[in-house]
Amino acid sequence: MAFSSFAQQKKDLPVFNLTKEVAEAHLRFLASDELMGRRTGEMGNRVAARYLAEQFRKYGATPVPGQSTFYQTVPLERIGASGKGELVVNNEPLRNNEDWMLIAGDAASLSAPVVYAGYGLEDTAKGWEDYKGVDVKGKIVLVQSGSPDNQTPAEIIASSNRKRQIAGEKGAVALIELFTVPIPWNIVTRNFTRDQISLAQGNEGATRTSLPHVWVNGKEARLTRLLRAANTTAQLSTEGRKSERIVSHNVAAYIQGSDPKLRDEYIILSAHYDHVGVGKQGGQPYTAEDSIFNGARDNAFGCVALLSSAEALAKNPPKRSVLILAVTGEELGLLGSRYYASNSLLALNKCIFNLNSDGAGYNDTSIVSVIGLDRTGAKAEIEAAAKVFGLDVVADPSPEQGLFDRSDNVNFAIKGIPSPTFTPGFRKFDQDIMKNYHQVSDNPETVDFGYLLKFSQAYTYAARLIADRTTAPQWTAGDKYEEAAKKLYVK
Length: 491
Ligand SMILES: [Zn+2]
Description:
Elements: H1 3-10, H2 20-30, H3 43-59, E1 71-79, E2 85-89, E3 92-94, E4 100-104, E5 108-116, E6 122-123, E7 128-129, E8 140-144, H4 153-169, E9 174-179, H5 185-193, E10 196-199, E11 213-217, H6 221-228, E12 233-238, E13 243-255, E14 266-272, E15 277-278, E16 292-293, H7 296-315, E17 321-327, H8 335-342, E18 351-357, E19 367-371, H9 379-388, E20 392-395, H10 409-415, E21 421-424, H11 431-434, H12 449-467, H13 482-488
Parallel strand pairs: 5-8, 8-9, 9-11, 14-17, 14-18, 18-21, 19-20
Antiparallel strand pairs: 1-10, 1-13, 2-3, 2-12, 4-11, 5-12, 6-7, 13-17, 15-16, 19-21
Helix pairs in contact: 2-7, 2-12, 3-7, 7-12, 9-12
Residues 272, 298-299, 330, 358 line the site of zinc ion.
């Protein structure tokens, strides 16, 4: 696009009339102490969602066609910390939360023979029949982790839930899993014994069961031998882990495109609005004077970019439609975007691009950094948009951090949608970034609001230029997500 045509449009486009005061007000509200770090499922998080929805409404965006509200409910489950318990195998006590831990289940006190059932899976199509000829009624089932064809940590954990379900249906009284994952065991115990939030189990094809489910360190030969010995019996007593449903929302706002031919297609503008909470929830140092993880940079900043887009694009829509999606649960493992990508409100194969905004912070206000810029086919538009607001674009700083796969964009990339992350300016993930990243010091007072405005304008203008393209952006040939794109966009 020639510079003269930018100059011509400048006067007319609402993006050029956005103000620093409005951007500042949004950020000061979303990152305020009153929202208590916007932790998923808590009041501050719900207030942030409400604020975003009502601002989208005010700017003239609407719920997605067919929806009556701006909210998409994301069903989540909070499971309490693994409490006290005892596991004794053939009179040998195992150390709780060291040799073994309770991964799920109600309080119990039981003693029963241990029966081995392979992977503990059944699937006729795949020929898995681990329970064939094995009677587990009233017994403790012992299984291996994973399956013959699941070896990534995420798959092993997902199949673990399925095993619990099957063991419960077969009438077992408890499930012991010899857990082997390519992750150090002490990291497994640290992460899985504390209270945690995940997508509710019903959403992964299994209903909840109260069956006590134990992971034993399956990489420890002594423990494997003990459990696999003939005529093993075990005593298990546990306080159980409390499980409760909690609710949080993705906020989805729609702006219909202006071109009758192209408006069936759309782009997704996304940013997560949740953060980590307050005090020990934050997992980082805090003091009595400042215990709130405000998340001004991470990611009230990106939310302001979404709000700016809503304001500017609703007034003067681009050719394709725009879905503005503020997602929850990012800090707990990209949960809101994962849920959305599997339960999308509009057909994903009509979505030509996702411009995500997220960031740890910035240390160079003359640039924006775009994770995945060279992979996702819209470099020209992004660079042109940044330039209009006096910003250069740095592609993929800190490749060693693997940032592309660490934010919500990855859940859209997995589906095949070209999805870079537009992030505040940094060239290196250095001390300057770390001093605020997930720290209580990430406060609104320390934000450069002039930069926030320019960043949001560049984001908004890039979104417009991409939504106005004649052809859809394509992954760079050979990219690891290119195959998914071929499946998604079948002609
Ligand atoms: Zn973030």
